[in-house]
Amino acid sequence: MAIKIQEVGPRDGLQNERTLLSTEQKLELIHRLVEAGLRFIEAASFVRPEAVPQMADADAVFRGLRRRDGIVYAGLALNRRGVERALQADVDEIHLSLGVTESFNRTNQGTSPEDNFQAFLAALADVRGSGDRRRPVTITFSVAFGCPFEGAVDEGRVVEWVRRAAEAGFDEIILADTIGVADPRHVGRLVRRSREATEGRVPIGVHLHNTRNTGLANAYAALENGATTFDASVGGLGGCPFAPNATGNIATEDLVYMFERMGVATGVDLDALIDVARWAEKIVGHPLEGMVMKAGPFRPLGARRP
Amino acid sequence: MAIKIQEVGPRDGLQNERTLLSTEQKLELIHRLVEAGLRFIEAASFVRPEAVPQMADADAVFRGLRRRDGIVYAGLALNRRGVERALQADVDEIHLSLGVTESFNRTNQGTSPEDNFQAFLAALADVRGSGDRRRPVTITFSVAFGCPFEGAVDEGRVVEWVRRAAEAGFDEIILADTIGVADPRHVGRLVRRSREATEGRVPIGVHLHNTRNTGLANAYAALENGATTFDASVGGLGGCPFAPNATGNIATEDLVYMFERMGVATGVDLDALIDVARWAEKIVGHPLEGMVMKAGPFRPLGARRP
C-alpha cells in the first residue's frame, strides 16, 4: 500500500516556534521541501492573526508560492471563515481540525466539538459547491489519544467521530496525538478500529508528536495497522531538545529514514531533506530535535581487515 | 509474558561518556537505580583498562556495592580473562558479547567471531564449574542489525549464531543494534526467527541505541515479537543530543514510560527514575537524550470548563 508523507513543518512546526519567520523564509522552506521530494505540504493555517501571529501571512505565503504540478499545497482552517480565506488563497486541499474533547476544543477553538463539526459540514458543502476544481477536504481529530485537561480519551468516542466524518464525505481522516502521550498499542488499535468503522473507504492517517520519544514507535504501529498518511515536520520543527514544553512533530527525515530502511518507499531524497533540516535549524536559531540530521543515514565504511 | 528491563547505564552508558566518574559516583548511580525499582543492573565491564579507562575500577565497583536481595548485579566480559575477573568480583550474572561480523569483532575484540565463541564456550564451562552458586551467563550478539564496516548483516548468519548459543547452554541471548541502524520490521523479524530457532527455550532480548530515533520503535517491535529482555540506560547515558557520533542507548525512563502506557508492567517507579536521570545529567555535565525526563509523564490538568 502506498503511503503519503505530509510535511507540516511550515504550519504546525513554525506555529510552535518562537522565531517569527518572514514570508520569504517560509516560501524558501516550502520550495526546498518540494525540491527534496515532498509532495504534500501543509503550507499555512488560516486562523486569526491575533491568536497565531506566526500564521498572519498565510494569504501572502499562498500568493508567493512557485507551484509545481503534482504537488499539493494545503491550508488548515478551524472554522468556516478560515475555509473561505483558504478558498480565496486557492489552496489545493483544505485541512480541518477538531478537538475530540469538550475542554480542549473550547479552549483551542472557542466552541463545542459538536457545533464545530456542524460548521465543518457547512464548510464542506461550501467547498464542494465552489465549483472550479475538486479540492479535497480532510479532517484531523486532535487530542485523540489523550487530552491535557481531561486525560484519557475514550476510544469508542473517537471512533464514533471517525465514522461520522467518513459518512459526511471527508476525503481523509487524521488521528492526532496533539500532546505526545500516545503509545504504539493505542495507536495501532485506534487506527484499526477507525479503518473498520469506515470499512476502508477513507484513508486514515496519523499526526504524531515526539514529546516523549514514542513518535516513531507510534508511526510504525500506525503503518502496520493500515494508516496511509503520516504528518511530520522537517527537523522536528516546533520542538527543541531542551525546552520541556516544546512538543515537536516527528521529524520528517527521521520518518523517511525509518520507512526506507523498512522497505517502504517515500519518494523523498533523504540527503536533500537532511540539508533542508540543517538549513531550517539555522533559520529558527536553535537546535532541532531530529536525529538523522545529526547522525546521518547509515553509510558503512567498507570492510576493514585489520 | 513478564519482561525484564536491564539497566546498562553504569556500563554501556558511562563507557561512552567523556566524563570520568569516580567509583563513589558510579556506586551512587547504581544504588539510586536500584532504589527506583530496577532489578537488573549491568554494573561494569571487566575489560583492559588501557582500552576502556572508564571501566578501570570495575573490581572496586563490585567491592563497593551495597547488595540487595533480589537484585542482579551483572558484569560484562569479552574474553576468558575478563570472565575470571568477573568471578573474582562475585558478579551475579556474566554477560558476554560477540560481534557477528569478522571486521567488527576483530576491530573491537582482536579476534575472529569463531575463535571468540570458542573462548566463550570455555568460559561458560569455567563458570558452570565454579561451584558455589549458579551464575547465569548471557551472550549478546553485537552489530546484529548492521555493521559499521560491512554494512548489511545477513539475518540467517545471526540466526545461526543464536541457534549455536542456545545449543551451548547460554541463559539468555541478546540481539544488539550497536550502531543504531535497525528498523522495527528488521528487529521484529530477527527476534521472531531467533525464537523459532531456539524453540522458545532461551529468553531473547534486545540492546538498542537511539542514534537515529528508531530506538523505541525497535523496542516495541521486539516486544510484540516475543523479546522479553530490554537493555536501556538511564537518561540515555552515552549519548548527547548534539554530538553526531554519540550513540546513546535507549533511555530507560522513556522505555518504562512507553511500556507502562501500553499496559506492560515494569516494576519501576517512573518519577523516581526521572529523578535519577536528572541527577545523572548533572554528574556527566552535559544534556542527556532522554525525553520523558524533560517533558515529564502524562499528568492531565483536570477538566477545564471555560
Automatic annotation (TrEMBL), chains A, B:
Residues 3-274 form the Pyruvate carboxyltransferase domain. InterPro entries: Aldolase_TIM, HMGL, PYR_CT. One of its GO terms (molecular function) is hydroxymethylglutaryl-CoA lyase activity. Keywords: Lyase, Metal-binding. SUPFAM superfamilies: Aldolase (SSF51569). It comes from the Bacteria. The keyword Manganese does not apply. GO terms for biological process: ketone body biosynthetic process; L-leucine catabolic process. Belongs to the HMG-CoA lyase family. This is Pyruvate carboxyltransferase domain-containing protein. The lineage of its organism: Bacteria, Bacillati, Bacillota, Bacilli, Bacillales.
